[in-house]
């Protein structure tokens, strides 16, 4: 004989008909449940960056610039390195069919030269950033972890470079070795030699903060050596601020290359860069402003795109700014 269902008393809910709606976890928690792992700093940062219009816009601009740098023929069929594409009788003509930006002081197609000028400017910016990031990060992580005399000596050595104006020092190096090496390589070396101290300071500060954390103490207690602690434990946990600075510095190095080329010690003809184009057009600016305006506009947009990306990455990686 089956037991009857017990009656429901007054004021008591019917437990057989009471249905509770499951609560929905946020999207980040949903990802955690799917993977079974807690969300990391980089996962949260990527989640945040995808929802920042400034980051998306900067990525689109940088992607177009990179494609323009590696495959300029996709944007123009004119080869600016071919002397036959220039006609001195049409110098400084305005925009016309087949010549979107007009012609420069030598009668060359301004649009084609602007497109091809992106390659050297971006190559110099990217490789200078890589050089400065590697040098500054390596010295910074060693100084921050070792401390003591190593930290003191390296910090005093770095202050010497901080005392040298970057553009003035790069100008001196590039002018001294001009003609003895490839102009693009010379600009990368000149900017790289003087551009690493900021990365050093940021990496050093991040390592000093991280080395007192429990995971470093545990690794040291388990017998991990200095190299393993620095590059396996400290480096991944100190990279965030370095990446932010490197992204912003990349735009600054592109502008610095343009300044050196404008002063005549950067990229040299027959190579093309935006700074060199601006230098060639400055004397006829009032008569024909377009040969200066277009490369300057591309330069400004490129530098602004990298700075916007750096700001967005900084905001995403810093929980205090979310």
TrEMBL record:
InterPro entries: BP-dependent_transpt_permease, MetI-like, MetI-like_sf, OppC_N
PROSITE patterns documented for this protein: ABC_TM1
Places the protein is found: Cell membrane
Membrane topology: Multi-pass membrane protein
GO cellular component, as recorded: plasma membrane
Principal place of residence: membrane
Matching Gene3D superfamilies: MetI-like (1.10.3720.10)
Alphabetical list of CDD domains matching this protein: TM_PBP2
BP GO annotations: transmembrane transport
Biased composition (Pro residues): 1-10
Residues annotated as transmembrane: 54-74, 122-145, 157-177, 183-203, 238-268, 288-313
Keywords: Cell membrane, Membrane, Transmembrane, Transmembrane helix, Transport
Disordered as annotated region, ranges: 1-36
The keyword 4Fe-4S belongs to this UniProt entry's keyword annotation: no
Domain ABC transmembrane type-1: 118-310
Protein family (similarity comment): Belongs to the binding-protein-dependent transport system permease family.
Name under which the protein is recorded: ABC transporter permease
Species annotation: Nonomuraea deserti
């Amino acid at each position: 004989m089956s037991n009857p269902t017990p009656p429901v008393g007054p004021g008591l809910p019917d437990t057989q008909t009471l249905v509770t709606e499951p609560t929905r976890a946020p999207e980040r928690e949903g990802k955690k449940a799917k993977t079974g792992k807690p969300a990391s700093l980089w996962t949260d940062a990527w989640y945040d960056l995808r929802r920042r219009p400034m980051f998306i816009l900067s990525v689109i601009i940088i992607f177009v610039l990179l494609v323009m740098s590696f495959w300029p023929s996709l944007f123009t069929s004119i080869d600016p390195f071919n002397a036959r594409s220039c006609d001195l009788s049409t110098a400084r003509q305005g925009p016309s069919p087949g010549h979107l930006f007009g012609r420069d002081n030598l009668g060359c197609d301004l649009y084609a030269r602007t497109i091809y000028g992106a390659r050297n400017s971006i190559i110099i910016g990217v490789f200078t950033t890589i050089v400065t990031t590697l040098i500054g990060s390596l010295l910074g992580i060693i100084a921050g972890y070792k401390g003591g005399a190593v930290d003191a000596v390296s910090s005093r050595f770095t202050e010497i470079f901080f005392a040298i104006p970057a553009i003035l020092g790069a100008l001196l190096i590039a002018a001294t070795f001009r003609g003895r090496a490839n102009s693009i390589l010379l600009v990368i070396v000149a900017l790289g030699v003087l551009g690493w101290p900021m990365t050093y300071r940021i990496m050093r500060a991040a390592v000093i903060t991280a080395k007192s954390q429990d995971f470093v103490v545990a690794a040291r207690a388990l017998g991990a050596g200095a190299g393993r602690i620095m590059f396996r434990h400290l480096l991944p946990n100190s990279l965030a601020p370095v990446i932010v600075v490197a992204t912003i510095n990349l735009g600054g190095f592109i502008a610095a290359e343009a300044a050196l080329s404008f002063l005549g010690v950067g990229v040299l003809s027959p190579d093309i860069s935006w700074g060199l184009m601006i230098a060639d057009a400055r004397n006829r600016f009032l008569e024909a402003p377009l040969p200066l305006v277009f490369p300057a506009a591309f330069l400004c947009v490129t530098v602004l795109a990298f700075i916007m990306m750096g700001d967005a990455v900084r905001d995403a990686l810093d929980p205090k700014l979310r």
